Write the structure tokens for this entry.
Amino acid sequence: MKAPKSFRLHIGIFGKRNVGKSSVLNALTQQEVSIVSEVAGTTTDPVEKPMELLPLGPVLFIDTAGIDDVGALGEKRIRKTMAVFDRTDLGIIVSNYNDWDDFEEKILQELNDRNIPAIIVFNKTDIYPSGTCLQNSFSGEKIPFVETSAVNGEGILALRQTILKTAPDDFINRPSILADLVGPGEAAILVVPIDKEAPKGRLILPQVQSIRDLLDGDAFCMVTKERELRDAFSRLNKPPKLVVTDSQAFLKVAADTPPEIPLTSFSILFARYQGDLEEMVRGAMAIDQLKTGDKVLIAEACSHHPIGEDIGTVKIPRWLTQYVGGKLQIDNLRGHDFPDNISEYKLIIHCGACMWNRREMLSRIMKARQAGVPITNYGLTIAYSLGIFERALQPFPAALEIFRKNR
């Protein structure tokens, strides 16, 4: 139950009000996660429930408000529901045979447009008879559907099995963070600065995940602070295949790492793992086009309280200002909220999104692409601003080639 959200398959539950979405969720989890009532619109904000769905593993169910909600408050609820699509890996549409209409078709179309696999749940089969036409239609389109009566528990086992079969392959066979860059039997050095931004008594999630990924890949791992890096090299009888640093220590680590040893940062690794590295490389190159007064959006997944030398609110704005040679208009945002209109920005800079699932990060990249706004991430921005971009892309030949062709 302690797996981070980024490791969980996000399963969004959508449908009209009072079709039994919350009852289906409660039956799946065997807990009263969402309030169930005969009053339409009981579920307001999305309700999240993490659990282990064996043999699939950790999942996060997200119960949403009815997509047919009404009134001013209803519109706000619908916007919250629509935002859940951005982080949905697998969609469940709950309806019944009598009520399936354009609302459900629009949900299905939204999932299809985003290449999100969908499962149809025809609930309340104890009340509504089967609809042969709908069954034939979904069978012909190869869209999985399940009949349930959540109040009786009927069909819930079949729904669980359908979820297991429909889960995206890229969740089940998720790519590695860096083990593929190192290889079995080889070593990596991870440079982890311990400063006032480091959480007391622990490492941050990307560092922990990188260590585990190397162990899963049968690779060796040495962890050191930036001040001890040179000594770490001297203690190895064979050079490491890769050095990974916190982006804020890039200059120091680059100076102390022999040029023949590939070097990158945790943030850049997560641009590949959680997003689209090549798209974000193109985004970083847009820094050269920034002019004094341009608007830049700096977005962070976490909602932590920024400290004095916060990376997103202080350091990156300072480095960008120095690079551009003039003051920029910087907007900062945190969490799942994202502006409806991003076209006013000349660049979006995002954190590594280690606390999210990959789907939500890809959704933001898609929105930026549709709006024609370049998007990049913290590590790539820092490397570009400090003049070590090419060095930081050394482990990624395809991304490096994009930079060399377009600079």
